[in-house]
């Protein structure tokens, strides 16, 4: 038992070190960091910018509350915090496992406040920050549920998680094939479900999310509501930060066609959406915010109170 615990702790430490050093190894010199950050300022109007806004638009209904405080988690160079700041949010702290890049981001005005934070052990008090944004970061965590509970501890109103969707909960055929093929031979389903186990170069397993998973999480700790939006943003390609997002561009028209088709199939339940924006509310949001979320395409799931508490 002790060996298992030691091995697990060693794995966690290795994972933190890999992620902490990732951007430092990619961009060791300050000039390299500055070049990347300047790219953030100049890529507006490009296909990459248009695709990134598919993610950021999911947060827009909440950004109308300008006085709300925000923490971004896994915001390596402050891109997420910068979006909130540019939309008038007045109190935003950018955080990542390493603050080496964020320090440079502050120098050039990308972020205003930053902190080095381990998502499993945040340094903030209970209920101290209104909203926490975890965009395209949850899938990097070695123990995502540990980070999820920690974010809920710190949040006063809610947390926003934007991540790829686990398809199996929304694809009965895939689940059926999984069950049948596992009966025939263990592991045979991997020949069909190619990305069943996905890993990234930084060393993490890609932990995709599902609606049901977040419902259960909220119900388990007696939270009042989960809001979920399905969307299809994953059409990035190398060089997209240099091509204008205008219909006269052939590559942009191709993306619009692919996205339109995927949106159609998702809207009719034929294929699951590529990604989910999930807002887990710690307190029941006011009616105005609920209406804004519904108008923006969110499905509101009211969690019934536990009758035994």
Automatic annotation (TrEMBL):
Protein name: Class I SAM-dependent methyltransferase
Highest taxon in the source lineage: Bacteria
Gene Ontology BP, a term: methylation
Record's keyword terms, sorted: Methyltransferase, Transferase
CDD domains: AdoMet_MTases
Signal sequence extent: none
Domain Methyltransferase type: 72-158
Keyword Transferase: yes
InterPro entries xrefs: Methyltransf_11, SAM-dependent_MTases_sf
GO molecular function, one term: S-adenosylmethionine-dependent methyltransferase activity
Native source species: Sphingobacterium athyrii
């Amino acid at each position: 038992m002790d060996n298992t615990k030691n091995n697990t702790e060693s794995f966690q430490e290795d994972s933190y070190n890999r992620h902490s050093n990732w951007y430092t190894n990619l961009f060791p010199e300050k000039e390299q960091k500055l070049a990347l950050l300047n790219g953030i300022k100049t890529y507006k109007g490009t296909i990459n910018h248009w695709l990134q806004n598919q993610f950021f638009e999911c947060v827009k209904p909440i950004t109308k509350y300008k006085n709300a405080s925000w923490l971004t988690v896994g915001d390596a160079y402050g891109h997420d915090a910068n979006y909130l700041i540019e939309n008038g949010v007045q109190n935003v702290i950018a955080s990542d496992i390493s603050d080496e890049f964020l320090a440079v981001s502050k120098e050039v005005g990308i972020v205003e406040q930053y902190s080095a934070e381990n998502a499993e052990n945040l340094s903030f008090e209970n209920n101290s920050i209104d909203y926490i944004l975890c965009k395209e970061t949850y899938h990097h965590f070695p123990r995502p549920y540990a980070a999820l509970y920690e974010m809920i501890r710190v949040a006063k109103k809610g947390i926003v998680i934007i991540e790829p969707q686990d398809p199996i909960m929304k694809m009965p055929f895939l689940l059926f094939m999984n069950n049948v093929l596992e009966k025939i031979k263990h592991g045979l389903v991997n020949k069909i479900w190619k990305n069943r186990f996905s890993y990234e170069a930084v060393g993490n397993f890609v932990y995709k999310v599902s609606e049901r998973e977040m419902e259960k999480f909220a119900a388990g700790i007696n939270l009042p509501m989960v809001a979920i939006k399905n969307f299809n943003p994953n059409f990035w390609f190398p060089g997209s930060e240099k091509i204008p997002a205008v219909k006269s561009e052939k590559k942009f028209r191709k993306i619009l066609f692919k996205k339109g088709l995927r949106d159609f199939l998702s809207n009719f339940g034929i294929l699951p959406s590529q990604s989910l924006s999930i807002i887990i509310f710690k307190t029941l949001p006011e009616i105005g915010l609920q209406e804004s979320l519904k108008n923006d395409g969110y499905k509101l799931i009211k969690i019934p109170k536990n009758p035994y508490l």
